[in-house]
Design brief:
The complex is a heterodimer.
Chain A lengths: L3 E10 L9 E9 L3 E5 L6 H8 L7 E6 L2 E2 L4 H7 E4 L11 H11 L4 H14 L15 H13 L5 E5 L7 H16 L3 E5 L3 H7 L2 E6 L2 E6 L1 H7 L6 H9 L6
Parallel strand pairs in A: 3-8, 3-9, 6-7, 7-8
Antiparallel strand pairs in A: 1-2, 1-4, 4-5, 9-10
Helix pairs in contact in A: 3-4
Chain B lengths: L1 H14 L2 H21 L1 H9 L2 E7 L4 H11 L5 E5 L3 H9 L5 E5 L3 H16 L3 H6 L8 E4 L5 H32 L32 H15 L2 H14 L1 H7 L4 H30 L14 H25 L3 H19 L10 H7 L3 H14 L4 H30 L2
Parallel strand pairs in B: 1-2, 1-3
Antiparallel strand pairs in B: 3-4
Helix pairs in contact in B: 1-12, 2-9, 2-12, 4-8, 6-8, 9-12, 9-16, 10-13, 10-14, 12-13, 12-17, 13-14, 13-16, 13-17, 14-15, 14-16, 16-17
Classes of the chains: A alpha/beta, B mainly alpha.
Chain lengths: ~250, ~425
Amino acid sequence: MSNAIIHIEGLRKQYEGASKPAVDNLNLEINAGAVFGLLGPNGAGKSTMIMMLCGLMKPDAGKISIMDMNARANGQIIRKKIGVAPQEIALFPTLTAYENLFYFGRMYGLPSSAIKTSIENYLHVFGLTDKRNKRVQTFSGGMKRRLNLIAALLHDPSVLILDEPTAGVDVQSRNMVVDFLQTLKSKGVTIIYSSHFLEEAEKLCTDIAVVDEGKLIVRGTLSQIMHQHPDCHNLEQLFLKLTGKNIRD
Amino acid sequence: MKILATIQKEFLLLIRDPGGVALIFLMPMILVIVMALIQDAPFRDYQEMKLEVIIVNEDNDSLGKKIEEAFSGRSSNVALIHKSDTVEAKNLVLSGNYKAAVIIPDGAGESLRRRTDDVIGKIFNNPSMIDSARQASVDLQILFDPAIKENYKQALSSGLEKVIADVQIEWMIDELQNQVSSNKHKKVKIDFAQLVSVKELYPSKKKTHFKLNSVQHNVPAWTMFAMFFILFPLAGNFIKEREEGSMLRLRLISGSQFPVMAGKFGFYFMVCLLQFILMTAVGVYVMPLLGLQQLALGGNIAGLLLTACSVAMAATGYGLLIAVYFNTPQQALSFGSISVVILAALGGVWVPVYVMPDILQRISRLSPLNWGLESFTNLFLRDVSTLAILPDLLKLISFGIATLIVSVFIHKSRTIS
């Protein structure tokens, strides 16, 4: 019996005016409790796929089901159970860290006491307790990234979707984020992790999919994939072999 | 709870934006004061303005003296400046130092007497009196500054004509008595002013009445203008949230779309009401300190609050629609500000609707600012009941609800692309 929490079947999306689809006939299953690495060069279709997973973009064709619910028909229910840290810093710059988190907690419909407890806990975990009353506009890139991640965690989601969560972040902050994700992994939270940092993916992910030009190129556990390509010694070599060395914009 | 949270968030965002606070509260207060001061003179117009007029009286008869007396009266709006030289008077008017000069030439009174005699001579068939009228008449002249306002010009001309008519009637009656009584009876002195008089009254349910003045027009007019300019912070913040990504987070939170829109609507609705209260307070308490009339609110306070709420609804709904429809702040703010200026102009904020051409008067009834201004004017000056302003209030409320619904629809449709 399948343990898949997310089913993607024949997914296709082509933007208006684009010559080819951003996502092209994608079929994928993601198991519950997996840390699923969604890898690919710029413009591969990762963010489009994430937007469709979150129900923010309608696919041209295909079906997504999350927790046995059709993503299009049950978008409202599904969004309650998933947390998303988008690539953008989705925060209010002139509000403090605490004000931002408290507002998002209330928008999730959480009771004030639960929000406060959750905020204090996550600020402590991500080393931001002493910055709680500072405005986000004064934060460094790493601090903003960590806060962006906390905002996706406030409602304890069963599925966490992270789009480039460590982009533009220093090594210390990246390390802190990866360590935390390891903790979540141990708690059984399903994580979909899109990143350009292949070392991170190697360290964190239980399953990996490499996509390019909207198509799934390879999919499996790290060891399965490496086994299929014995000439590659690490994920980076494999990635370059599969997607080529041409610059993507 | 979610709506309240959004209202609190919007409050924090606004108070941390000093420029936005100044734009919402300080600038409109300055605007309403400046506009009331600038338009005070045109509103006072002839009734309250003292017009300085040169008089050159070369008449040796009593006509010149009668005209001087009439214009020097306490109730006259004309201050006469006596000059003896017609050429000098012309030059002074030409230079723009004086708005007009009344020239009463030598023989003007005599000419009027001859005309009067002519009429009486014809009535009593007295050829000697008719003969005297055959001589050339001497006319009075008024020299006007080309820049004089038409209403001043008309007032001065009609004032002069009235004095001449009064003198002519007085002389006619004198001559009639001379012809009829033939010295048997003492002449009766008739005060023509007491025969028929015109009283200016304003129908009002109360003993006191208020007429339109600069404050009564400008305070509600520019208050509404400022309320509609709420679109600046509203659309600015909204598009900034969209560009910076915080709106994306809210789109990712289930069931947050309506509370976000309703919270923004609720917050800016309250800001509009606060603007109204502040601007009204300026009209009531600050305007008199600046030598302007005090804003009279009329007796229907409930109607006034309802009107303020209705205008606030319309203004906030419009701002929200602009915010969701446009993609960039430049587009939203340019379109928004120009459209509000057009709606204000059509609505009668700058010039009253009744002076507009017919076609514009009809179009002006489509402007929400006109609905609001009509309602305020009716409340302030006509002291009407709430029922009388209900049609305008319903239009404003409908406009507010319609724009809110369309905004939510557009926003939701863009949530899922």
